[in-house]
Amino acid sequence: MQYVIGCDVGTQSVKAALVALDGRVLHEAASGYAPSFPRPAWAEQAPQLWMDALAQAIRALRAEARFDPREVAALGLATQVDGVVPVDAGGRALRNAIIWMDRRAVAQCEAAASAADPAHLLAISGLNLDPSHVAPKIRWIAEHEPAVDAQTAHYLLPGSYVALALTGELGVDYSNASSTLLMDVRARRWSPELCALFGVDPARLAPILPATAPLGTLRPAAAETLGLSQGTLVVVGCGDEHAACLGAGTARPGVVCDIAGTAEPVCVASAEPRFDPGGLVETHCHADPDAWLIENPGFVSGANLRWFRDEFAAEEVRRAAAEGVSAYELLTRAAAGAPPGAEGLILLPCLMGAMSPTWNANARGAFVGFTLAHNRAHFARAVLEASAYAVRDITDRMAEIGLAPHEIRVVGGGARSRLWRQIKADVTGLPVALPHTTETTALGAAMLALVAAGAFPSLVSSADAVVRVVERTEPQPAAQARYEEMYQVYRAAYFALAPVFERAARGA
Question: Which of 185, 503, 490 is nearest to 362 (CA)?
Fold first, then answer.
């Protein structure tokens, strides 16, 4: 029997899935790690963490499934986007990766804005001029770490770094490249104008290839570390939210993919590039080379719940260990005891800047409206509701620019919560569907490998054959009415606090 393996190299773990050639997920394994936060609004990760976790996850698959390594036809990668790893000529990382949630490069964006109209840059790249993207991060390294820049042979995205380590070959797919602020999103090539603006030599970037293109086979050392055969094909791979959309079956227009993970990208496919003049949603390339993905690439979401758990839920953590359940499950149970709208308490989910309702690197988190009558259950519910308000910001904008969203498919760790799915349906007014697997990023990565291995002729056909919906949650009219009121409070609070954010950021 033959298989493929799909790997999700995320912010907090690597998840690996062993998948049959008909798309059935047979076994899954994971290995975790964490980002570091050296300063406020900074976020980094050692690239070796990805490689170690990848090896641990794949070896765990082997131990569980007991397959012959020669039966693995191909390996697909889906990796966190918007990070940058400078490497020397031998492919060695010269510093920690500056990852997607890092917002340090504000000054570099301001310098670019003074040299070029941000609206013009959006028209070329489909992106906002924002420090989350790769180009200003590269510029920050060049300005603040010139010794690193001098040794750098290539500036790689996380996926390109992992693929290089596995195969010795350079490549980046359309989806990852389209989130760098260095690519012409219509032409699907590095933009000389954007590269010149940020002082990036295109020769220091990986060549752009389709996500399903074979990059190479495993290097001997990589094959030994992973416990796989040297003949295993490695495909170029794509961004994690792009793979999650494939695994959720949202390769066709109108179905929104809401990826409730550490961050929460909200995406919808389009047959043509569409642009949001307000910049709330960006225009990226889809993993499917024949489509585009119109998306907000991810406000911080699950990381907010994790922060709340770690800092304020010691009792739930203790009880969870004693009862053999997740602390998140106990927090969700508590949140269910508070009414919709948390009796006037809201969270602005901007703990690492904002990407909704506007993009603002200086935005800060805030609980607003609490009183002595509020308890931990209200706060837990407010954390869940905050992400739903942000999702509505995005789906409303998608509707305004003609993308006609009619269903949300929620995937990722947050999709397991029935309460959270109901809150999102009630806040957005859209039905929320649950696919047969919530860990769709590893499945989407496997679908890339399935196409490369010849099991399916296209990514759309693989999505049609593999993905099925197992549950739908409809909006509840009474809760919708309450949430309509609280959604307006959320927006009013955000815009009222905008001047305060700027002052708070200067004091960090």
Answer: 503
